[in-house]
Amino acid sequence: MIERRLARLLERHHFAERDPKMAFVVGPRQCGKTTLARALQEARGSPDLYRNWDDFSWRHELSLNPYGFADAYRPRESARPLAVLDEIHKFPQWKRYVKGLWDTRRSAMDLLVTGSGRLDIYRRGGDSLLGRYHQYRLHPFSVSELLGKDWDPDRDTPERVRSNLLSISKPGPEREVFATVLRFGGFPDPFLRQTDRYHRRWLRERKERLVREDLRDLTRIQMLSSIEKMIELLQPRIGSLLSLNNLRQDLGVSMESVTLWLEQLERLYYCFRIRPYAAKLSRALSREPKLYLFDVSEVADEGKRFENAIAVSLLSWCHHSQDWGQETLDLRFVRDKERREVDFLVTKEGKPFLLVEAKLSDPSIPDALPRFAEKLGGVPALVVVAHLDRPGTAKGFPVLPAAGFLAAIP
Question: What's the whole-model pTM score?
Answer without folding.
Answer: 0.94
